[in-house]
Design a protein that fits this description.
This protein is mostly helical. The chain has helices spanning 7-17, 22-29, 33-39, 52-62, 66-69, 94-108, 112-123, 126-135. The radius of gyration is 17 Å and the shape is globular. 9% of the residues are buried.
């Protein structure tokens, strides 16, 4: 968790700068408000941390650089965080790379209907989830 030492303060700052409520961040990340509240908890014993998916959703949807939320400077790492499997372009041309990134984001971004289905699936009971997966042939 070395990259998340001050995540609670950094998240609160990003949220306040963007005039986002806890509920807004919860919706962006697909979690409940209590979970976001735990991410911002001052008491380290009560503090929770987002998963990679929530963290990336937050960065993409709020246009916040990942480095702004993580403790990159203190960790003595380079200026850029490299995450395996997230390479989207082999181009050295920044405009081409950004265009390819936009296309990739559009390809994987959920529609409103898909997001609602996922939200409902996450909120349902384990038995209901198993039934849905059986219906889908999984």
């Amino acid at each position: 968790m070395r990259y998340l030492q001050s995540f609670n303060r950094r998240l609160r700052h990003v949220r306040e700068q963007g005039q986002l409520s806890l509920a807004d961040v919860a919706e962006i990340c697909g979690v409940d408000e209590a979970r976001v509240r735990s991410w911002e908890a001052e008491d380290a014993r009560q503090r929770g941390f987002p998963g990679v998916t929530e963290l990336l959703d937050l960065c993409l949807r709020t246009e916040t650089p990942l480095e702004q939320l993580l403790d990159m400077e203190e960790a003595g790492d380079s200026d850029q965080l490299e995450l395996p499997g997230l390479a989207f372009s082999n181009s050295d041309d920044l405009s081409v790379a950004l265009q390819e990134l936009e296309q990739e984001i559009s390809r994987v971004q959920l529609t409103d209907g898909e997001a609602e289905l996922l939200r409902r699936f996450r909120k349902t009971t384990d038995d209901n989830r198993r039934m849905v997966l059986q219906l889908l042939g999984r």
